[in-house]
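User: Here's a structure from my thesis project, written as structure tokens. My advisor, Dr. K., wants to see whether a designed sequence matches the one we expressed. Can you design one independently, without my sequence as a hint?
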């Protein structure tokens, strides 16, 4: 038997209250089907199937729940766990795809960053001595000679005054 969950567990999984889950079950009795979406155990406790969680998630998102069969369990998990055998089986494929895509993405990212830096350099204007002094003071530094702050666009060594 596949995994089943209590109403409280389902509520926590999809981020709604247990009362809301019970209300949705009553209001959508024609869509939330016994044995497909939910079932009762020996003690008559309500348990939800993975397909039921998927249906409740669809209701939460404002769409109609599908009335598929239990055969398609790969699409019904609310939040798949990465330790499931199905996902482990596809891990080598994911690694191969990541290895193929990563260099191209890195190159495009590097290009975009370089473009932004060049654009920034075109827009930036040199700071005035007053602006430099203000920034240094905000950083807790006190230059002894603010006029000697910039010479020929090169920052000079500035001793701190006490």
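Assistant: Designed independently from the structure alone:
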């Amino acid at each position: 038997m596949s995994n089943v969950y209590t109403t409280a567990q389902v509520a926590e999984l999809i981020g709604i209250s247990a009362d809301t889950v019970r209300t949705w079950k009553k209001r959508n009795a024609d869509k939330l089907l016994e044995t497909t979406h939910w079932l009762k155990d020996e003690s008559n406790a309500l348990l939800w199937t993975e397909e039921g969680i998927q249906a409740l998630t669809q209701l939460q998102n404002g769409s109609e729940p599908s009335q598929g069969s239990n055969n398609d369990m790969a699409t019904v998990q609310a939040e798949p766990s990465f330790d499931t055998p199905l996902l482990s089986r596809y891990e080598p494929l994911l690694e191969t795809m990541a290895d193929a895509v990563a260099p191209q993405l890195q190159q495009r990212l590097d290009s975009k960053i370089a473009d932004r830096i060049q654009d920034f350099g075109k827009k930036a204007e040199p700071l005035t001595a007053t602006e430099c002094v203000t920034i240094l003071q905000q950083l807790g530094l006190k230059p002894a000679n603010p006029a000697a702050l910039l010479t020929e666009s090169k920052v000079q060594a500035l001793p701190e005054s006490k």
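When you compare it with your expressed construct, this may help: The chain has two domains: 4-75, 82-143.
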